[in-house]
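Q: Fold this one first, please.
A: Sequence and structure below.
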Amino acid sequence: MFSTYQEALDWIHGRLRLGIKPGLKRMEWMMDKLGHPEAKIKTIHIGGTNGKGSTVTFLRSILQAGGYTVGTFTSPYIEQFNERISINGKPISDQEILDLTNIIRPLADELEETELGGPTEFEVITAMSFYYFANNSSVDIVLYEVGLGGRFDSTNIINPLASIITNIGLDHTNILGNTYEEIAFEKAGIIKEHTPIFTAVKHPGALKVIEKQADTMQAPIFKLNHDFSISHHESLTHGEQFTLQTRFNNLEQLEITMIGQHQTENAALAVTAAQYLTQQGDLILNQQAIRNGLKQAYWPGRFDILSEDPLVIIDGAHNDEGITALVEELTNRYEGKSIHVVFAALKDKKLDAMIAKLDKIASQISFVSFDFPRAAKAEELVKLSQSPNKLAVDDWQTYIPEEIQSLKSIDILVITGSLYFISEAKPFVHKYLKNMTISL
């Protein structure tokens, strides 16, 4: 038994040594031992390559605005570990993490002795979340974000009210496959029989795979630009405005404060799913709840403007699709600005394509190392860059404050890359900027 939160956290993180072990048998074993808590909660399942966390946030905010108490299970965390299991956006307490770990630890030890082997870090956290939400009577519905893929992801033991697949990109190809179609097959594994599926996938081959799985499962499918569509999009100073047409009605001049055209698609998925479930009688939501929820939605680390003067932006663009969206947004919003990029990444990503796109918009690009088992070293990253103004940095905690201090009025500092790096950098930079403001 653990007696402190830190002991519990160290044990959970220690399970990273087991790596990623796709499959549902260990989860099913633990759920059986716990009395199947996953069957006692109402859920919505959200998968895809990019945009999962943002879509969860839009949907949570809409449901909250409609008066619901909403649980969320997300990964990875940005500011603190506990936020992976939250209620109405508030992370559970250290004591609750400790209590849950003490419940799951004996099961993990017992499972270790079976032919299935011990559960991974992600499986442990997922099991903790199921137990927590099933035994918390105040929670009306839980939004589950897929960790990796879908078909064999440990969250895929639920039977949700609806499933959402945001998009498909070439990420985690060493596990999920090398083509859009192969990855789509894994993502489409969350589609359940007769359960509606909402998707913003545009790649024709990937969409065909999802349509085929929906047909096999006799699941109603709602597709972006087919069953719902976005028009009259306009970028605002602090967000986006757009009109959404769905099978149910048209919603004009919807506003979100999360920046980027891609965020209008994530918002559209959340709204369409909410409208469908309202029509089916699973939810009670009016148009005002949708409008208010969208406007109030905030997800840290997604084109997050930490400071206007100096202009500092942090964005968890950790794969090719994420970098493409970031580059497009920077190009559209900040023409004529001098963009200083700080980039960190995991070494198992397709780094050359990502760095090439950043090279095109960066007047200066700095590659940094950070403390994570799969992190690429700055010296490895800098070799992939063709920028004439590039450098490798080992101590980012010294370097970033120096960069902020040197920014001129035409400069932008963009800190981007791995979400694991962003989770370290955001609180550090936020604190530094706050202290800088106080000292002025």
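Q: Good. Now the second chain.
A: Here it is, same layout.
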Amino acid sequence: MDSKRQQKFARLIQKDLSEIFQKDMRSTFGSAFITITDVKISPDLAIARIYLSFMLTNDKEGLLHDVRVKTKQIRGILGHKIRHQARIVPELEFYVDDTAEYAAKMDVLISQLDIPPLKEGEEIED
């Protein structure tokens, strides 16, 4: 469980990184739409694990590689934005957030299940 300090710092990082991807570096990644779904901060605030969601792209791994290549530039812009609010700029680690795809896959699997209805007088067994 994250401390309040970690949660507050994570929200700050998420807000500013969202702005960086949507405004400052919009043209850098082509027509892809990148959103930050979650940020996890280490207890010493030195490492930020950023989970990204990609839209309007077919090559998510390639786009993730491009983001990782530009990490130093992204961290520099972030440092400029948070310089009055944080002592250190955390190291950034980017990951693909595939929870939406996983949820869609689970929905498809569940919809394909063939569960027979209960017969009269029959009870559900635990």
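Q: Anything worth noting on the second one?
A: Helices lie at 4-24, 60-69, 71-82, 99-111.
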